[in-house]
Write a structure and sequence with these properties.
The chain is of the alpha+beta class and about 130 residues long. It has two domains: about 60 residues; about 40 residues, no CATH class. The protein has four helices and four strands, in the order H-E-E-E-E-H-H-H. The protein has a four-stranded antiparallel beta sheet with strand order 1-2-3-4, sandwiched between helices. Strand 3 and strand 4 form a beta hairpin. The chain starts with 19 loop residues before the first helix and ends with a helix. The relative contact order is 0.12.
């Protein structure tokens, strides 16, 4: 019998909307104490008040979460399958092409935790650019 996938949980607490400093500290504490997170970074746009967290798990999962305001988040998760390297590469390239319809190359790179030059190379190879 196939196992049901576990529901995804937010990487960091949804902002309470009190202030940018409180939300930033809550995000940093949540990521720093999460044993599933191997590395993380936090970007803050002081003008818009958006906090963007990026984390990489020990198995190569890439998570990006934008804290947009009180009760509002946007989360993107990439979980590599147990397939071989060529299947993973094909899946990554497919994700890049799909995301290129709505995002800039640098945003795709941040979302998938890859370099912008790799995104450009894939788009050129796939004839999207």
């Amino acid at each position: 019998m196939a196992q049901k996938p576990k529901p995804l949980r937010a990487l960091v607490p949804i902002p309470a909307g009190t202030d940018l400093t409180t939300d930033f500290l809550a995000a940093a504490e949540s990521l720093a104490t999460n044993p599933a997170v191997a590395a993380f970074s936090i970007d803050v746009n002081k003008d818009s008040g958006i906090i963007k967290t990026k984390a990489v798990g020990h198995a190569g999962q890439a998570f990006t979460q934008a804290l947009l305001g009180p009760g509002l988040t946007s989360t993107t998760t990439f979980v590599p399958s147990g397939a071989d390297a060529s299947a993973k590469r094909a899946a990554r390239d497919s994700n890049i092409v799909t995301l290129s319809k709505t995002l800039k190359q640098t945003e795709i790179a941040d979302t998938l935790n890859v370099s912008q030059s790799l995104v450009s190379m894939v788009l050129r190879r796939e004839g999207v650019r």
